[in-house]
Amino acid sequence: MQDPSALHQSRFFSLVLSVSFYQSPIQYVSDVKADSNQEIHIFPLNTVLFPGGLLPLKVFEQRYIEMTKACIRDNRPFGVCLIREGREVGTAAVPEAIGCLAAIESWDMPQLGLFQLIARGGERFRILETSVAPNHLLSAVIEPIPPDAASAPVDSLCRQVLQAVIEKVGAAQFPAPVRLDDASWVGYRLAEVLPLGARVKQELLEATDAAHRLERLRALLVQQGLKEKEG
User: Fold this and answer.
1) Which residues of the chain have pLDDT under 70?
2) Terminus of the chain with fewer CB atoms < 10 Å: N or C?
3) 66 and 214 in contact (C-beta within 8 Å)?
4) Contact in structure between 159 and 186 (CB atoms under 8 Å)
5) Whole-angstrom Cα distance, residue 27 to residue 81?
6) How far apart are CA 146 and CA 142, in angstroms?
7) Predicted TM-score (pTM) of this structure
8) d(CA 98, CA 199)
């Protein structure tokens, strides 16, 4: 087994670094909130968005162009959910019941019929009911999921591994300020950068509290042969 200080020598760390990091300073704010029984548009994707994370998107389907225009015009978020059944394009996919609000941080239209967006993750939510428009744009009535308790302890192995990643790729690739003493921040950021399958990431998004999320992440790290640095 190896400690996180030797991560740069491991194949596992190479996989971590293969993740595309967003090349811009990111401010960590959590003011993208949901109201009970709020109705929002849903963007089903083959990826999982976590609170505080950034998601680059290329929007070219007409239904999502209309969604993007409405969100920009009304300054409102949409919801990102992992696809449970179906595909990203074509008829409306069936989303997972738990997703993450997304606010458009910046946008550009480099050509007619194409939006390039940077969306920021806000609160998690649970879908209560869905409806599908004639153009296959999915909407849902949602309820917010309360944030993790602030008092959860930070697992030392998870902290050390994330710190090693931050030192390697630079703090500017992560939401500022770096919050290695915040169990939610550590858990969400580690879940983003580890080379995990989408279903595992969804499980981590759905974790009922930060301690449970870190416990699951620790087990995944141990499976990769990592252990805490002594001393």
Assistant:
1) 1-31, 230-231
2) C
3) no
4) yes
5) 23
6) 13
7) 0.86
8) 12
SS in 3 state form for 51-101?
CCCEEEEEECCHHHHHHHHHHHHHCCCEEEEEEEECCCCCCCCEECCEEEE
End-to-end CA gap in the chain? 16
Domains along the sequence of the chain with CATH: 4-23+150-223 (1.10.4060), 31-144 (2.30.130.40)
Amino acid at 168: K
The bridge status of strand 54-59 relative to strand 78-85 is unpaired
- Asked whether the beta carbons of 178 and 154 are under 8 A apart, the reply is no
Which pLDDT value is given to residue 81? 98
Instruction: Provide the residue type at 137 as one letter.
Output: L
